[in-house]
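Chapter review. Work through the record for FADS1 desaturase before attempting the end-of-chapter questions.
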Amino acid sequence: AIYFSTLVGPPALVPLYFQWYIFYFVVQRKQWVDLAWMLTFYIRFFLTYLPLLGVKGILGLHLFIESNWFVWITQMNHIPMHIDYDKNVDWFSTQLQATCNVHQSLFNDWFSGHLNFQIEH
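Structure tokens for FADS1 desaturase:
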């Protein structure tokens, strides 16, 4: 379970499941303009990085480095918080209850790009 949640899960979860589901949702709702913009992102991504990294480098960057970093950064600020049912609280207060700052250190500041200050972000 630990192996999956730290090494296999994050890189597979974000790019393979979430992005597939986003494409599925856009096509199902027939949001063709959004689909075109999404495709232009991937075209620009591949045109930019393919000459520099090659196919294996692009897949490594997107599937393992970038997505793993994204999962760690976003989840460390949101998962530990207790989220309750909607109690008709204003949006700002709900956002503050659903997130937290992460301990400040040189490593956390650098690794997260200062997103460890999630409340201020």
